[in-house]
Every structure is written in structure tokens, then in C-alpha cells.
Design goal:
single chain, 3 helices, 0% strand, mainly alpha
């Protein structure tokens, strides 16, 4: 698999993990500055990652293995945090 898609996919996962619960809170009527900023930030990460995946040539993409591994680890932690937050809130 191309490293570009792993890299940008990790950003999408983090964006969904941050913006998804915030968007759900907005839909439920809970309006606050932090929730609004999380929604905007999550959506921005998703849009930017998709744009970069479509714009960048996978053959020309350069990212070190360490940065890609770190970003994938961060995406896993973001998913874990979102799941634990949803389970503890239920």
C-alpha cells in the first residue's frame, strides 16, 4: 500500500475521532466554543487529507517511516479515546 494513503488516511481517522463526537454534540444542541472548534478542526483535517491524497502523486510523496508510524499510532490512540469516551458516557 502506498505510504501517502496510509499517511492521509491516518489524518482522516484523527479528524473523524475529533470531529465526530463534537458534531454529535452540536446536533444534540450542546453549543460551546470548544465543541465548535473541535468540529471545525476535525472537518478541516478530513478535507485537507482528502485534498492532499487527490492532489499528491503517490510516487513523489516522501515521509519517513518514523513519522508515518507515529501518525498511525496517534490515529489508533484517537480511535481508542473516542471509543472509551463513548462507552463511559453511555
Amino acid at each position: 500500500m502506498e505510504r501517502l494513503y496510509i499517511y492521509t488516511g491516518s489524518f482522516v481517522v484523527i479528524g473523524v475521532s475529533v470531529g465526530g463526537p463534537a458534531t454529535r454534540s452540536l446536533a444534540a444542541g450542546d453549543y460551546s466554543i470548544p465543541i465548535l472548534l473541535m468540529t471545525i478542526g476535525g472537518a478541516g483535517m478530513i478535507v485537507t487529507a482528502v485534498y492532499e491524497a487527490l492532489k499528491t502523486d503517490p510516487e513523489e510523496f516522501t515521509a519517513s517511516a518514523l513519522s508515518t508510524f507515529t501518525l498511525v499510532g496517534a490515529a489508533c490512540l484517537a480511535i481508542l479515546g473516542t471509543v472509551l469516551s463513548a462507552v463511559s458516557g453511555a
